[in-house]
């Protein structure tokens, strides 16, 4: 028998060979579970553990703050913002939930700063962190991602936390229901709360001496009413011998956050006011225990309210400001006093990061309501705007496509960027400085304005926020709308037998569907159509640039022209002469040649010295670094030289051949298609852009 036969796959026809056995899957799961998850430990062990590793006893703000740092950070010097890798790279999900855009990371940075301030006890721990933004800005997804990482963090050794359970209660408490012989801490409280405050403070003082952190450990909570009842009964039985109580009736267990099990993470959604009451937040009577324990017995209370479930972790309020005013009153004590007050029950201490999310209309409505003054005073608003850099916006659409089952289709160059450009245009405030166009502002935000341009990006951003109702980027079309149109354009292209998606196809869907989108105000439609024309014009320039590169690109000639340009620039700066290539004679720098290059970048005559000095400085820096001059390495100079070469050659190009479908098999045209495919186009997409750019160039030639 041959080796090939021995190694053959014996999977029956129609079956799929399994690459993961049950044993392998089981082992992977077991490794993902904390080793001590099922292990009960004595209280004495916990006392030793928290002194040795005080972070185990952190409060919710401290643990969430450390969580962001745990997954890594990166400082963006240009924006002056710390990027948290859980959002900028999403290591847990292989980048599936990556967030893009300077504005978004500024918002995340602000959110974390407020949590970190709360961790230090500076005040924000007593405030609701209110994420305010337009629909589809990503605030809900960020909130979701934080909850997922908190779950993962509490499973790790760095994020571990513990709670306790009461055991063998029936042996002491006569009327204890046998079903309640072992009872877990109803609020998942830290075992330290079992110590009276005076003794607890002694332990915490020792912990803080050993703690290496920017915060100190504090815990002044009281036991929840049910645990308080058990403690009183057991202390009476053992004649106030606390050691006997803790050794005989308390076990310390690992606590892992799990939103699905409503443990340390809870989400709360507004419902119809007739079907929602405050007990959903604070808990209610456990009617199944009333017959056992009687009315007003703390053991007959059901700690199933959202605030109870979120204790030690994160409370997330979806569309928070849609709640009725009466519900929002419960948040006053929950945030400021860090307590809740269930109906007919004593106050209960809570420890959690309270996060709320809301859209713009609800915020405007509540902001002007004098009866909401107390609530507004207890919130820390964090603006969560749309992305304002169109290339970052394009990454959002690429992420959407990566996370979906996209048909076999080629996305042409500029398709995502031009879609992003349209989205960003709808979000920006028109510049108040008449010398700056809206397109220039967009490019400044995108980082395309260099040091020779008299455009101050920082000033533009400050002015945009001043002019806007709340902040720039809080209005406009969402990435969700643009993504939907891209999806439709993809399916329409497949339906028409086109294996590629071009910017022109995306523009068509924008134009056809703007009026049909319910979130776009009718008075904005004319403005948005005008923006779409600006995007078309920008794409025309890029398409022509790509065709120019394909038709007239000559690397050797660009290098020769680049060297000539630099020789004349250096002679101009040093006020010397340059040797003529043909005659060998010394001559003055050729100003006509210099300007023929610079005008291709629209460098005005009064700015030529700045541009020349910029290029000279760049060459000098590269020389100091040991790098030789190559115009290909300077984007602006390269583009200028390419455009000059194009001007020199375009009169010899038959643009009618670009548009004519009858010459598709022409050798020269095929070479142009090949040159465009090297730039990332598909063959059909290359033919489309050749026809489009050819028609535009031919039109401009006629106009000239």
UniProtKB/TrEMBL annotation:
Protein name, entry field: PrkA family serine protein kinase
Region of interest (Disordered), ranges: 1-22
SMART domains associated with the record: AAA_PrkA
Protease recorded as keyword: no
Pfam annotation, one family: AAA_PrkA
Source organism of the structure: Halobaculum litoreum
Residue ranges annotated for the PrkA AAA domain, each copy included: 41-435
GO molecular function: kinase activity
Presence of keyword Transferase: yes
Keyword terms of this UniProt record: Kinase, Transferase
Listed PANTHER family: PROTEIN KINASE PRKA, PROTEIN PRKA
